[in-house]
Known about the structure:
Chain A is α/β, with parallel strands linked by helices. Chain A has nine helices and twelve strands. In chain A, the strands form three sheets. Chain A has a six-stranded mixed sheet, with helices on both faces. Chain A has a four-stranded antiparallel sheet with strand order 2-1-4-5, covered by helices on one side.
Amino acid sequence: xxxxxxxxxxxxxxxxxxxxxxxxxxxxxxxxxxxxxxxxxxxxxxxxxxxxxxxxxxxxxxxxxxxxxxxxxxxxxxxxxxxxxxxxxxxxxxxxxxxxxxxxxxxxxxxxxxxxxxxxxxxxxxxxxxxxxxxxxxxxxxxxxxxxxxxxxxxxxxxxxxxxxxxxxxxxxxxxxxxxxxxxxxxxxxxxxxxxxxxxxxxxxxxxxxxxxxxxxxxxxxxxxxxxxxxxxxxxxxxxxxxxxxxxxxxxxxx
Amino acid sequence: xxxxxxxxxxxxxxxxxxxxxxxxxxxxxxxxxxxxxxxxxxxxxxxxxxxxxxxxxxxxxxxxxxxxxxxxxxxxxxxxxxxxxxxxxxxxxxxxxxxxxxxxxxxxxxxxxxxxxxxxxxxxxxxxxxxxxxxxxxxxxxxxxxxxxxxxxxxxxxxxxxxxxxxxxxxxxxxxxxxxxxxxxxxxxxxxxxxxxxxxxxxxxxxxxxxxxxxxxxxxxxxxxxxxxxxxxxxxxxxxxxxxxxxxxxxxxxxxxxxxxxxxxxxxxxxxxxxxxxxxxxxxxxxxxxxxxxxxxxxxxxxxxxxxxxxxxxxxxxx
Lengths: 255, 319
């Protein structure tokens, strides 16, 4: 069953196509990955699904649980159960970690805060009284944002490069949260360059120049990271032989 | 004093404390309550001296914390006026003697203000190796009929520490003319912060200055202001560093909503090549990234804005 359906989605910025007639089905309860080279449109796609400012004016449609969300604002989409882990988490001067984690949580309690922090590998004693501000490193803020998403218990979470800025010892907590979210029934979309992150997905979409060029099981998609794929030079216009053409299609432009 | 006068005084004291949600103090907590030009109540602890003198429209107060004494609990001051109009002038001379350490909390309350002037003229001397944390919270009524003019001169002697925080978040600010000036000597530290929420037609003028005159002196001036409706703010923060290894930072952040206006003038001046002073200033609407993060958690725009402002203005004194 599809939780999210992206139908013929095209988005232009300054006359240039960033997303190009994309169609995708996101199965409920699975962990999906969206992969592709820099500038492929991965983050743009996540921002468009979330409905962020600057990503609202697009062609095509996005259906969530069978209904179009095109006209909905960010917060309306969030209240339907969609949320986004930002690649670069915001800093909030003075805003307490607890307040931040509870902002989107249905249940507002200290237990929720503590559990969410623990899932993200952060000690409640150490973090609960701190602010989500510049006194925290980027990696700490990323994990606190992840904790806030865990506390929200969303139906669909878009994670834009969940491992960026996180030190190597802490990445395991990111993966643990992804696993836990799947376990509690959330659908996860990972936007990533990382083969390590990709291992945690069931299924992947490969996009280049805003166009879907391949999709399939993870084992086959690993080829993308094994030298078959080079960054696409056809910005906005992938060549016809790079487009999706069945399960054996090579990824993007082949060297 | 007649029975009636005593009863009136007790009633006034109860009203004053109720307006700041404070009803009683433990015996080992020093506190002083001043209504208009009348000292209503006072409880002191060992090592703390507070003398007062009534003047026509206020009170002169002399405060000393004796040499080497560390006060266990913060000293609570309450200044205010219960009627809707009047003047309260407070002239304070505070000395924290050598090696002494104290924390003061001052609540200034004008819950019914329609036309009130609260004029404070303070000189604070923190002697060598001493420290003082001074937290001043204002509680105003919704009508905004208060003019606040706190003028404070701070002298931070060698190796001393002084921090002050001025908070006006609840009720209408009215007119604020805040002027703090600090002289910071060798290896002394001064940290001055203002947090104000201006609404309606409030007019806020903040002027904070630190002169880092001693080697290794440090100063931080922080102003966090949120404004809505037609409120306006003018912030002038100035650090002058004259001595080697002096360090200073000016931080001014203002969130402006509706028709409110804000102006910030950070001035940093370095007169010694071994000194270093930085500044940051940001004025504008709520940061879009912060807003979108909270919107993506399901808060609507008003809820998200309130939470961001609450963070910017939030405080936990002496935590």
